[in-house]
């Protein structure tokens, strides 16, 4: 069982699940967060994220708590930083991460282990964050330990969690790496890299790999549509090969924090070094353009049936970025909805996880009665195949545009 006193900086999608697993392993864990509502939710025994249940929070009463007071970090033997690393436009924004590390520096004590989990470009931990921590006069690798271990959370995937997903760990020194590895071995297997930069690069490589392969099948689906080929049947045929092929499926676009954002950190950093990362840049453009291609297909389908888009009602089914999660970060549903609204369509949505969808200059309303909404829509668009969706009911829609390859009827259109 654990014997660490853990300070978790950030208790969102990445920080809270790890905090829960560490508390289950016998550690005392306190989550520090600047979001007062999130802190109060956890302390009330409720979970602010769908990857942790209320029962899990309640079962850890006395071992897991949360606070908005950074002073709680001073008593921690291990401080884990799970600050967000957003992308504004196409530019990485490291301000939340540096701000979090400045907060840690204000509470840093000799002997502590500081681990950064936030996704970022190689060289951030030792090049940007280490100097912030060392402004205290304490030296990394001498007075305190410093390591990097990227989070690996897959929202909506019940098959893989923290316990059966190996951890990648890189330390400033061999001693830093070993201490961090011992910490994570409480909850999962650990792979130790040569250094922190290799660990930072590994996370971005993982998501760039997915970005590129998703872009390949997304662009391939456009080619198949132009040639009258069933892309779903084609990929299924290719997937029968027992070697040299891994199956990826097309969709309305990519979303979430990782795939559309993480490669941009490496693209941007490579640019500062005068190095091109061409495949990642091309994949980003392909996937960013996919929602607008889907919107065009929807509009053309409406017009081909003799209906003006400006007089049509479009129902979007599943507006989160991924099935079986309430996460709407970078969801492709937003550019699809915005494009159709700009053409004058009345756009509604139905999603068991969220009620409505908002973006800076617009909003579409959620409809609770799916059967009625399906009957009244000129076209229903299946964007995510949530397990809660009744596909037999959805299949009875008068007109269905399916971006998931789930429903085949004589009145449905596949991506």
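-> sequence recovered:
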């Amino acid at each position: 069982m654990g014997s660490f006193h853990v300070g978790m900086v950030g208790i969102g999608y990445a920080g809270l699940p790890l905090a829960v697993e560490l508390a289950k392993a016998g550690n005392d864990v306190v989550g520090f967060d600047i979001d007062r509502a999130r802190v109060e939710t956890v302390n009330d025994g409720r979970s602010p994220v769908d990857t942790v249940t209320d029962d899990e929070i309640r079962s850890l009463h006395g071992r897991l708590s949360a606070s908005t007071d950074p002073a709680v970090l001073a008593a921690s033997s291990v401080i884990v930083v799970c600050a967000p690393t957003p992308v504004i436009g196409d530019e990485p924004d490291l301000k939340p991460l540096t701000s979090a590390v400045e907060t840690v520096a204000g509470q840093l004590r000799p002997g502590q282990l500081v681990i950064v989990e936030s996704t970022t470009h190689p060289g951030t931990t030792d090049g940007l964050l280490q100097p912030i921590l060392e402004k205290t006069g304490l030296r990394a690798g001498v007075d305190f330990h410093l390591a990097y271990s990227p989070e690996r959370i897959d929202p909506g995937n019940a098959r893989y969690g923290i316990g059966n997903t190996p951890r990648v760990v890189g330390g400033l020194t061999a001693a830093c790496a070993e201490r961090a590895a011992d910490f994570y071995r409480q909850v999962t297997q650990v792979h130790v890299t040569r250094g922190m930069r290799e660990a930072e690069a590994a996370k971005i490589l993982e998501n760039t790999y997915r970005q590129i392969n998703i872009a390949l099948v997304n662009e391939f689906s456009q080619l198949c549509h132009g040639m009258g080929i069933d892309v779903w049947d084609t990929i299924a045929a290719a997937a029968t090969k027992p070697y040299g092929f891994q199956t990826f499926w097309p969709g309305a676009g990519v979303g979430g924090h990782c795939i559309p954002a993480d490669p941009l950190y490496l693209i941007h950093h490579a640019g500062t070094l005068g190095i091109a990362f061409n495949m990642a840049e091309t994949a980003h453009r392909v996937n960013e353009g996919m929602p607008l291609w889907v919107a065009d297909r929807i509009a053309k389908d409406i017009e081909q049936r003799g209906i003006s888009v400006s007089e049509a009602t479009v129902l979007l089914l599943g507006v989160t970025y991924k099935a079986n999660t309430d996460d709407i970060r970078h969801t492709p549903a937003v550019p699809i909805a915005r494009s159709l609204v700009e053409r004058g369509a009345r756009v509604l949505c139905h999603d068991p996880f969220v009620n409505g969808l908002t973006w800076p200059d617009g909003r579409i309303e959620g409809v609770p009665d799916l059967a009625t909404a399906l009957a009244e829509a000129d076209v229903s668009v299946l964007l995510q195949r949530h397990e809660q969706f009744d596909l037999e009911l959805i299949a009875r829609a008068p007109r269905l545009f399916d971006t998931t390859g789930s429903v085949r009827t004589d009145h449905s259109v596949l991506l």
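The mean pLDDT is 94.
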